[in-house]
Specification:
Pfam families: Zn_peptidase_2 (PF04298). Keywords: Membrane, Transmembrane, Transmembrane helix. InterPro entries: Zn_peptidase_2 (IPR007395). The chain has about 220 residues and is mostly helical. The protein is built from seven helices and three strands. It has a three-stranded mixed beta sheet.
């Protein structure tokens, strides 16, 4: 069942990724009526929230936009930074939503950030430990049990990411609407784009959970044997 679930989620993930890129391409062609660029919108939202120590910079790639709390930068991809489209407005405001979360000590973001150091170490060795555990399962379940525990940490991280992303989108949509950054029609497009972006995190979390269940079932099956 876990394998079937993984296949279904993999297919759903591919569909969501395709849909996200399609929506982003579509809304990137719709010019924002107020003519502001992604960079200008980001700077405006930061200023409105009294945030003066965060820089807005350009980063290479497509859909590589992110907020870095370590150096306090809003990193906008090339297709967002200078673009004056509905897609750029949605993405820029969303990433600034994370900056606002950081500035206001949003609880779930603090929890997520606190997990990062341990998760970095776990991710480095986890797959090797699981592989060794599978080979040694008939001898001892301990290595695989450790691997499953480490994978459970990454799964928990995936699910903690969900409210962080949803909240950033909520803040973004509320701000662009309140400040008149978008028209009613543009607001609907921005909301749709962010919805598909959020769904990528949902399927990633479900995929992680399905993989965890697969390894856990392997561990429990080996212990029964």
């Amino acid at each position: 069942m876990a394998i079937i679930l993984m296949i279904v989620i993999f297919g759903a993930s591919a569909l969501v990724q395709w849909r996200l890129r399609s929506k982003f391409a579509q809304y990137s062609e719709v010019g924002l009526q107020n003519g502001m660029s992604g960079k200008e919108i980001a700077e405006h939202m930061l200023a409105d929230n009294g945030i003066t120590d965060v820089r807005v910079i350009s980063t290479e790639g497509q859909l590589t936009d992110h907020y870095n709390p370590a150096d306090k930068t809003v990193n906008l991809s090339e297709g967002v930074y200078a673009s004056r489209s509905v897609a750029a407005a949605a993405v820029a405001a969303h990433e600034c939503g994370h900056a606002v979360q950081h500035a206001t000590a949003y609880g779930m973001l603090k929890f997520r950030s606190a997990m990062v150091p341990a998760l970095s170490v776990a991710s480095r060795y986890m797959q090797w430990i699981i592989l060794i555990g599978i080979f040694m399962l008939q001898t001892t379940p301990i290595p695989l049990a450790i691997g499953v525990a480490l994978f459970a940490m990454t799964t928990l991280f995936s699910f903690i990411t969900l409210p962080v992303e949803f909240d950033a989108s909520r803040r973004a949509l509320a701000w662009i609407d309140q400040k008149g950054i978008v028209t009613t029609q543009e607001h609907g497009m921005a909301k749709d784009a962010l919805k598909w972006a959020a769904l990528t995190y949902v399927v990633a979390a479900l995929g992680s959970l399905a993989t965890l269940l697969y390894y856990a079932s392997m561990l429990l099956g080996g212990r029964r044997d």
